[in-house]
Design goal:
Elements lengths: L3 H11 L10 H9 L4 E4 L7 H10 L3 E5 L3 H13 L4 E4 L5 H12 L5 E4 L1 H4 L2 H8 L3 E6 L14 H5 L3 H4 L4 E6 L4 H10 L6 E4 L7 E7 L3 H10 L6 E4 L3 H13 L4 E4 L5 H12 L5 E4 L14 E4 L6 H8 L9 E7 L1 H11 L4 H19 L5 H7 L13 H9 L4 E2 L1 H13 L6 H8 L5 H5 L16 H13 L3 E3 L6 E3 L1 H7 L6 E2 L18
Parallel strand pairs: 1-6, 1-7, 2-4, 2-5, 3-4, 5-6, 8-13, 9-11, 9-12, 10-11, 12-13
Antiparallel strand pairs: 14-17, 15-16
The protein binds adenosine-5'-diphosphate (ADP) and zinc ion.
């Protein structure tokens, strides 16, 4: 298996068009290629599929992918076919004719990836047929379905383990986004994984200092920023080729060693500029999104976004190029509302479906840029990961928050009352109902649910409804609660648990400007 991860990297680029691996992908692929059973826990969108698709292409023979949903597997198969990878599925939705055809392709060794549902696999005619093929790898997607502790238990999954003895030569890889210890343990034992390598990917890069500033005068803002890092390597990303060229020459005219990189340059120019950057002959690479492939420069100390990226995915990839050596690095995004218009203009040229997706991506990006809470919360939640803890201490909002607390009220008690009430009422209500309970309302909804029996009923009479709403918005902004965008229901976060345990104090404003508690008499609601 010598050099197989180099091979993997080439395939990632050549077949899938990916410039680099996401966190842990390389290690996971290496583990599978080394023939070790592997368990992968990675947030949704983390790039799990690649972890078996690449080995499938590197290894001789066939990779069998077990996936619970037929629609999902058909999507994957058609995507792979578009990339020129021979893949098929066997499932109950195929006609007898298609089924026979696919079996023909498989027995002739023309297929690299076979997707199948557990119930299909467990039929003797399928299992018996597959036994005669050369199956090098078996991938169990959505492996948490095997655990009764998971959120999606599927009994058929339990029986997959029996296949272990029928395919003794295959290496197994199980993948899931569910990370609890119990589920992880269940997967390993139910599938009889042999001394598995376990990989748990998190998206947080604690070494990156995240900052957003409103774009006012980009040239002087950029100059101010890079002057903080004399002689240290950094990348400046711009939205267009023209802006890359302008920015690079502006920097050079100010005495900085900067070179452009974009798809409009000749291959030779691009290669030589990139080499100059890697070898520290220039300090700054000014680039479009085209820059990044194979950039394994460990000591990039800053990433400056002159323009708003189109989505968090690419933003995350770009800032991820900083600080590969594990040392602190600074990521600054200049956020201008004009950029939103420009991106929307591009979006309007897409088809309907593309527009919808691109608009959602843009919204998430704007949400990140406008966030008043720790930047890590919107960033990581985009990848399905919660940022637990009170303060990352490594973003603009967290460092700012600390300074402000001197002029603010301690609202910890109000926070504890509110959070307890959210928990007691079952984490399914919005602020309005929580406030009704706190203020002892006799509304039908409160009575019907028996919420007048709760210990938190009527414990919040010291504030008016309006004040409570004001407080609840601060609790959300400060990341104690997240709000379901569809139903408005509030969910306490890890930070909320710290507040409830008394480990963390909350500061904010008790009153909206111009509201004075002594002028407002609180009465129970009718
Ligand atoms: P998961 O199964 O973990 O939810 P997927 O395998 O569907 O995630 O990957 C999520 C997205 O990330 C896909 O659009 C995929 O093409 C993309 N992706 C995966 N690996 C990489 C990579 N190394 N570089 C860029 N994009 C990637
Ligand atoms: Zn933070």
């Amino acid at each position: 298996m010598m050099g197989s991860t180099t091979e993997a990297k080439k395939i990632a680029k050549r077949v899938f068009g990916f410039d680099s691996f996401r966190p842990l992908q390389k290690e996971i692929i290496g583990s599978v290629l080394a023939g070790r059973d592997t368990l992968v826990v990675m947030p949704t969108g983390g790039g799990k599929s690649l972890c078996y698709q690449i080995p499938a292409l590197v290894l001789e023979g066939l990779t069998l992918v077990v996936s619970p949903l037929i629609s999902l597997m058909e999507d994957q198969v058609s995507q792979l076919k578009e990339l020129g990878i021979p893949a098929v599925c066997l499932n109950s939705s195929l006609s007898a004719e298609e089924y026979r055809q696919n079996m023909g392709l498989l027995s002739r060794g023309e297929i690299k990836l076979l997707y199948t549902a557990p119930e299909t696999l467990l039929q003797e005619r399928t299992a018996g047929f597959l036994e005669q093929l050369d199956i090098s790898c078996i991938a169990i997607d959505e492996a948490h379905c095997i655990s009764e502790w998971g959120h999606d238990f599927r009994p058929e999954y339990r029986q997959i383990a029996a296949l272990r003895t029928r395919f003794p030569k295959s290496v197994w890889i199980a993948l899931t986004a569910t990370a609890t210890e119990q589920v992880r343990h269940d997967i390993c034992s139910s599938l009889n994984l042999i001394r598995p390598e376990v990989f748990v990917a998190g998206f947080d890069r604690p070494g990156l200092f995240l900052e957003v500033r409103i774009k006012s005068d980009p040239d002087s803002q950029m100059l101010d920023f890079i002057r903080q890092y004399p002689d240290q390597s950094g990348i400046i990303y711009c939205a267009t080729r023209r802006r890359v060229d302008e920015t690079a020459s502006m920097l050079r005219s100010r005495g900085f060693l900067a070179l452009p990189y974009h798809a409009g340059l000749s291959d030779e120019e691009r290669r030589s500029n990139q080499r100059a950057f890697i070898k520290d002959d220039v300090q700054i690479m000014v680039a479009t999104v085209a820059f990044g492939m194979g950039i394994d420069k460990p000591d990039i100390r800053f990433i400056l976004h002159r323009d708003l990226p189109k989505n968090i995915e690419s933003y995350y990839q770009q800032i991820g190029r900083a600080g590969r050596d594990g040392l602190d690095s600074h990521c600054l995004l200049l956020f201008g509302y004009g950029d939103i218009r420009t991106i929307r203009y591009f979006i309007s040229g897409k088809d309907k479906k593309g527009q919808k997706a691109a608009e959602l991506h843009l919204k998430a990006m704007i949400n990140y840029a406008e966030s008043e809470i720790c930047r890590r919360i919107p960033l990581l939640s985009y990848f399905g990961e919660a940022f637990e803890g009170d303060n990352c201490r490594h973003c603009d909002n967290c460092s700012r928050e600390k300074k402000q607390t001197e002029h603010q009220d301690n609202i910890s008690l109000a926070a504890r009352k509110f959070l307890s009430c959210v928990i007691r009422t079952g984490r399914i209500f919005g602020a309005g109902h929580i406030i009704d309970v706190l203020r002892g309302s006799k509304s039908q909804k409160v009575l019907d649910r028996g919420h007048d029996q709760l210990s938190t009923y009527g414990i919040g009479l010291e504030y008016t409804k309006r004040q409570w709403f004001h407080l609840s918005r601060q609790f959300i902004r400060q990341g104690l609660l997240t709000q379901d965008p569809q139903h408005g229901s509030l969910l306490p976060t890890g930070k909320a648990r710290q507040v409830l345990r008394g480990e963390l104090e909350v500061f904010g404003q008790l009153h909206e400007d111009g509201m004075h508690s002594d002028r407002i008499k609180s009465r129970p609601e009718k």
